[in-house]
Amino acid sequence: MRTVLTVCLATALALTGLEARQNQASAAGLIPFESYLEALRVQAGIPGLSAALIQDGEIVWERGLGFQNQERRVRATPDTTYPIADMSQTIAAVLVLRCAEERRLNISDPIRRYGASVPEQNATIRQVLNHTSSGSGESFHYDPERFMQLTYVVENCVPQPYRKTVAVNVLERLAMQDSVPGRDVTEPNVVNEKLFASALVDRYKSALERLATGYKVDKRGRLTKTEVTLEGINAASGLVSTVRDLAKFDAALDTSLLLREETRQAAWSVSYNSQNAALPTGLGWFVQTYRGELVVWHFGVVPNAYSSLIIKLPSRKVTLILLANSDGLSAPFQLEAGDVTKSLFATLFLRLFS
Asked: CA separation (Å) from 140 to 272, 282, 342, 343?
């Protein structure tokens, strides 16, 4: 599959010589970008894809490509909701770093001090944020299960259920009207009925009714509907959102609304171990360079069902957000290894807009 996609990308870029750099997400670049993105979606067998490009905090292009429900022929739109899986970690990172700004914690503290459970006694919050808490804390190992322990850190800082903090401090504050703190939030006997007002629960129900159907795609491109178990939300996964809502989160990240500039810069700076070896992570984000330019990104995957990708070029204030109802955005490219350039979707964006 990757070979086919590589040929597709190389052919598309060669046709018009669009490997030449562009300074911004200009109108001239958006038309071919949409065409090539659609070609990659089809070649990857992704049933439905929602996408948005953000420039200087504003959506300059958005589309739904394919179908959010193949059987009913319901087309994907920018308002289609998807589980964003691991990309939820970016919100957890904001909450942890805000607690650090307010001096309620120090990210150099052992994470066990805040009720978390990891085997290493001296593993720090910083090490969990940059996925180096395993073993000696010297090497990168992407581990969502460990990242999930930051849930307890946030609940220690803000003494209420984690999903309530996400809802109030991020979703409501940024008017992310179609985002839901866990697919199980409206289930009887799961969430205390007093946690959220009935009007808010009704809004969550409405958003979940627009949830894209997840699909497994076999090597021949045949689709099988996937029944995904309802999940709650924690620091590692669980948020349901849309590209439009995530664009609001992205815009807030680029200002001081969520984090101070110095905190944001720290989160988006390459981490180093004690041997001064560079790691592929900052604090809650993957960080690397492409053609000498800083790239900040994250991904999400629900195997055989959903995937997500966000890529930021901070110096240009350009961001791409992709949500899909198969795992084709992430699984084929082994993004957990920390190199976004393995993704042909990312490469398309980087070649056109960096």
From this structure: 10, 11, 18, 20
Q: What is the spatial distance between Cα 109 and Cα 126, in angstroms, rounded to a whole number?
A: 8
Give the whole-angstrom CA distance, residue 81 versus residue 91. Answer: 17
For residue 10, is it within any domain? no
d(CA 52, CA 117): 37
pLDDT tens by residue, 13-70: 443 444 444 445 555 557 788 999 999 999 999 999 999 999 999 999 999 999 999 9
Q: Which helix (H) or strand (E) holds 10?
A: helix 2-16
The answer to whether the beta carbons of residues 197 and 245 sit under 8 Å apart is: no
Q: Is the dihedral of CA 322, 297, 211, 80 positive or negative?
A: negative
- Tally the residues of the chain: 354
The answer to the question of residue 50 being in a domain is no
Q: What is the CATH number of the domain that holds 286?
A: 3.40.710.10
- Does some domain include residue 230? yes
Whole-model pTM over 0.85: yes
Residues 257-316 pLDDT 10s: 999 999 999 999 998 877 888 899 999 999 999 999 999 999 999 999 999 999 999 999
Helices 150-157 and 89-101 sit at what angle, rounded to 10 degrees? 40
The tokens describing 12, both together, are: 């598309």
User: Has residue 62 been placed in a domain?
Assistant: no
Measured distance CA(161)–CA(193) in Å, rounded:
13
Identify whether the C-beta of residue 305 lies closer than 8 Å to the C-beta of residue 216: yes
Secondary structure element (H or E) that encloses residue 27, with its range: helix 27-44
Which domain range does residue 172 map to? Answer: 71-310+320-341
The per-residue DSSP string of 167-208 comes to IIIIIITTT-TT-EE-TTTTSTTTS-TTSS-HHHHHHHHHHH
- For the chain, the domain total comes to 1
Which two three-digit tokens encode residue 74?
Answer: 């319901």
Q: Which amino acid is at 91?
A: I
